[in-house]
Amino acid sequence: MDTELICLDDYERQALSTLDTRYGDFFAAGADDEQTLQDNRADFKKLRFRPRMMRNVADVSLSTTILGNLISLPVGIAPTSRHKLVHHLGEEATARAAKSMGTCFCLSTYATTKAAEVAGLSGDATQWFQLYIFKDVQMAQRQIQKAKKHGFKAVVVTVDLPVVGNRRKVNGTRKANSAIDGFELPPHLRHEIIEELLGRDNSVTSKPCSHLTWKDLAMIVSASPLPVIAKGILTEEDAEQAIKAGCSAVYVSNHGGRQLDGVYSSISALPEVVKAVGGRVEVYMDGGIRTGTDVLKALALGARAVFIGRPAIYGLAVGGEKGVRRVITILRDELKLAMQLSGITDVNDIPRSLVQHESLIPRL
Amino acid sequence: MDTELICLDDYERQALSTLDTRYGDFFAAGADDEQTLQDNRADFKKLRFRPRMMRNVADVSLSTTILGNLISLPVGIAPTSRHKLVHHLGEEATARAAKSMGTCFCLSTYATTKAAEVAGLSGDATQWFQLYIFKDVQMAQRQIQKAKKHGFKAVVVTVDLPVVGNRRKVNGTRKANSAIDGFELPPHLRHEIIEELLGRDNSVTSKPCSHLTWKDLAMIVSASPLPVIAKGILTEEDAEQAIKAGCSAVYVSNHGGRQLDGVYSSISALPEVVKAVGGRVEVYMDGGIRTGTDVLKALALGARAVFIGRPAIYGLAVGGEKGVRRVITILRDELKLAMQLSGITDVNDIPRSLVQHESLIPRL
Amino acid sequence: MDTELICLDDYERQALSTLDTRYGDFFAAGADDEQTLQDNRADFKKLRFRPRMMRNVADVSLSTTILGNLISLPVGIAPTSRHKLVHHLGEEATARAAKSMGTCFCLSTYATTKAAEVAGLSGDATQWFQLYIFKDVQMAQRQIQKAKKHGFKAVVVTVDLPVVGNRRKVNGTRKANSAIDGFELPPHLRHEIIEELLGRDNSVTSKPCSHLTWKDLAMIVSASPLPVIAKGILTEEDAEQAIKAGCSAVYVSNHGGRQLDGVYSSISALPEVVKAVGGRVEVYMDGGIRTGTDVLKALALGARAVFIGRPAIYGLAVGGEKGVRRVITILRDELKLAMQLSGITDVNDIPRSLVQHESLIPRL
Amino acid sequence: MDTELICLDDYERQALSTLDTRYGDFFAAGADDEQTLQDNRADFKKLRFRPRMMRNVADVSLSTTILGNLISLPVGIAPTSRHKLVHHLGEEATARAAKSMGTCFCLSTYATTKAAEVAGLSGDATQWFQLYIFKDVQMAQRQIQKAKKHGFKAVVVTVDLPVVGNRRKVNGTRKANSAIDGFELPPHLRHEIIEELLGRDNSVTSKPCSHLTWKDLAMIVSASPLPVIAKGILTEEDAEQAIKAGCSAVYVSNHGGRQLDGVYSSISALPEVVKAVGGRVEVYMDGGIRTGTDVLKALALGARAVFIGRPAIYGLAVGGEKGVRRVITILRDELKLAMQLSGITDVNDIPRSLVQHESLIPRL
């Protein structure tokens, strides 16, 4: 069966048709009317390629570095929570897949696997640790120290969740408030990282930390032994703030359309952010990536790498570690093909002119 | 059951599936092809947020003033007729809900409840009285005197109904011309305010007062002991006229898409009106508000407060006073959430840059 | 039943559901993919009203003149062929309806009724005669002389049919080439005007006269005892040519989307033509008019009057003369209402600023 | 039955409803999400005609020259592979149809018929030979020499297939890699030209030649006894490169939407390429042509001739040589009609002002 899944949409359909609806809905949901969820994908379709021919594309290089670490393709695994909801090996399987494919895995604070178990298989893999700042700056700093010891290469601080967005699909079935987003784990699963950090008392995590400012982040960055990435940036103003706070990279994201409905799609926000950053730090993005052409468009607009959230979950649901590998492989092959067909040989050398917004095609 | 209704669209579906079709159609109808009815909602979706992160949104203030009266959130109840068609307690229930939520209720001239009954529960609640000018200026002035005595805080003069729009859904089932819009009440209901004013002879109300000019309104305003709000403004020219006539506020509205089909949606007209008004008076709007993000968009474009018409009716239909409260509560919670997610802490301090029209997103 | 038909779309549905499919298809068809057929209607929806309030609209004047002849409303009956296909009284019934409503009827060369029978009921009615130029200029001039004697007030020369457009719906069922457009009349009907002109030998009419130039039209105009209107103009260049040829009016039309598929919709072409004409002659239009707001939009863009084709046929099909009257009445009432709701009191005094294209609404 | 097929869409429906799904899918497929496949057609609909009237269109000339060879209409047969999949006479039937209609047939390298059999019927017909450059420049040069001997008038070098696009419909059913695009022929068919060139060892063709550059093409052109056309150009940059390489013509194409999904539609790319070429060489295009109005639009934007791919295949599938003739005849008649209806008498004299993009229609 698996061999007949030839694109990421196939994995989505397959996963959502087999997953328990509560869990499928949890991952699939966007906020409110899900306009941003849809925009994230639809806005990629508004960009058109201007492909170049006859440029010797026999050898194509997909590898790049993110914060100095080599990855074999510019597509990493975005932080997403609770992988064990879809596969019993959870985050460990996803991380193994990323490692074997030579790319970055970002572990979520809401993982259902201990950080040590994920980090244990790391070797020299590029693993990042996603951090929600609970309670105060000090606790965040302790977390970063632990992440450093585990071997994580960077910390991804999510800045777009002062409170949790309103995901109607999830809320319609929610029974209790066991965690920050009101999603109750089945009894055999644990928020392993949160419990290690805070114990089973959820009184802290159930109160999102909404008082944070860029000053807090600047304090965290200044004391951090790891580079810090600000995830959830959608405007030039906030890109500037993140750089001022000392962040090593800016990560354009709208949390998969799960926070504020009606914000810019990620790919729409990317040009503004890239321009504001002006090459001072690296820029990443997630949101809506489903094909190799999507990856190529984001890179052409200035992203150094992109990340996939739901597609990795759906790959995991369908086939565990192998499924995630297959999802990454499809994107890799599609990206390589798209590069060859547009005359690009190196992901680090993509001209902006490769892509044009449909509204700007010259009509003459 | 009620607890499963988690957004205003749920209330609409629930109300329209249970109401007598004649009454459901009466409230749901727009004019002609219902283009404006649809535009009122669709045009909100064309506005995108540019949310700001890490701005300490732990404390968010939703309260504001309208014409000097404090309201707990910038969402009031628009004047709509005949609440008893959907719930036996009618306008009284709606007004109680508004009062208990700390916001403004605007009573329609076509209420099916006596003004005294609504006003009787007012205390210091912010209640407004909507006025159609029948026959002549003198009768309007007498009406305003009565409204003043009842404790209403302002008079909302509807300026966009010189004649009644053509609502096909309603006209298709209409049997008689018992009132200005040809809608016949069931025998156990009365147009209480109109009967108090004019008796049961409908010869006056059945002839809409189409000869009015801004001079008439200026006369009414100059003699009014209450501030006057001009409701139904869609252009800069009329905003200027309303201010010249002495109005204390301009209320952007297209009568819920029930008058002239094909006019600007309310949210499309808002920027032009706000610019023309230039801060000289307050600007309100109704039309298409269904989510907290809609409210936030209207505020970002310069509305001081917004009003809901059909959603309140649907809340009333589903659950009486409690249903209306629930509808307001949903909007309040959604607005608060949207503010937090976009880095806004005070409804009185929303930058215009929070919102961008989709056609103006920079493509670079 | 008839009384439940409250808009022109109702008449279309009713007519097409009862007419013989061959005849329904004949009238409903557009050319090729029917893009222009659809654009003619859809492009009206892209225009939005900027209505003005409080302007004393108690008295509204719908009457105007076309080429000096008074009509009671600026909506005439466009020339369409073969009315007897849908009603046994054919063009006579349509003409009677137009006369009784005080507006213009334009008789088609492809009428199934003798010109004398239509003209006989004319009195001082404003009747026009539509002319296809067959064979040569002399025959056209003889036709105009006859039209003059019958009492027609003007001649409408169709300039957009050098050959007949490709209407797939019609062609799919066509059996023979009995006339210019290959449509075969049932045996009991006659192209009365053509037979009077040419006899039953269709060798002339079956060869469309495709060699005509503006010089030919200039010759016709110079010898014509009646004012000549050029129907089928879509560009500024041709508007200029028509004026140079001496035409008394320019009639914007794409032949109901039945000629070249993909041309400008009539309402899209109107601004360009009106600007080019610059008030030197009157401008009319047809194509897509289905509501009073459509009429008002066309007038605001500079048309002096509009014409309806299919709607009159559908009215005729549903209810004969009475049906046509009802269709005109609906448009008249809708137009009056739209004028009142937008603050307009005279069809001859409509500001261009009443209407804005959706792409030009200021977003600020 | 055949006589009821009155437009190219009818042929497509008929062909796809009767062909073996594997073969129907092979021809119908576009790459990935098939956005470009759809854009190729949809973008024609965004162009509107500004037709001119009364210009004596009795005589219309459709004939033109391509590279000095006369063709009776500016519509040729694009190179497509494997005609015997849909009809047992394959490319020979298609070529005969093109010849009898007086237009150009372009034979694909992936033909299932020997070049000699097609060329044998040529006489003075305008036949072109499409070339994929396998392995190296020398083999290409030998191929061109053979093509010259066969009587082909020009060589069409496909430059947009350094690797094969990802056509999901085809890949979903693919069993083996028998050729460059992984499509396995049924046992009774042969890639005759490839076998003649390379023998049955597909080791060469199964490795697409992705290392080619414009220098290679320049070498091929400089040694070619036939004019060389570069097919697959979508940008001004590549148009310039093709001219620098010595090509005699530039052929705008995205390979029927089968290579990189998301590129400019052919008709969208045409204005940019035509402007860049500036009349130095001829410009052709294919992609999305389904009606005579499509042809006319492409010509108005500057194409000297257009080519049809799938429509010829569908005609062949439905009716062999006769079916292809019928498809060309329909386009010819539609083109002639469109020219007459827009006041054009010669395909070599079409003003750019005939066509306007919908976004540029003046709104005034």
Fold and architecture overview:
Four copies of one chain form a homotetramer. Chain A is α/β, with parallel strands linked by helices. Chain A has one domain: TIM Barrel, CATH 3.20.20.70. Chain A contains 13 helices and twelve strands. An eight-stranded parallel beta sheet of chain A has the order 4-11-10-9-8-7-6-5. In chain A, helix 1 runs antiparallel to helix 13, helix 4 runs parallel beside helix 13 and helix 12 packs across helix 13. About 0% of the residues of chain A have low confidence. Chains in contact: A-B, A-D, B-C, C-D. Chains B and C meet through helix 9, strand 8, helix 10 and helix 11 of B and strand 1 and helix 13 of C.
CATH superfamily of chain A: Aldolase class I
What are the low-pLDDT stretches of chain A, counting only 5+ consecutive residues below 50?
174-179
Give me the number of helical elements of chain A.
13
The oligomerization state is homotetramer
CATH topology tier name of chain A: TIM Barrel
Shape of chain A: globular
Terminal Cα separation of chain A, in Å?
A: 49 Å
Task: Report the CATH C-level class of chain A.
Answer: Alpha Beta
Q: Which percent bin holds the helix content of chain A?
A: 40-55%
Structural features:
364 residues; 13 helices; globular; 8-stranded parallel β-sheet; TIM Barrel; two-stranded antiparallel sheet; homotetramer; alpha/beta
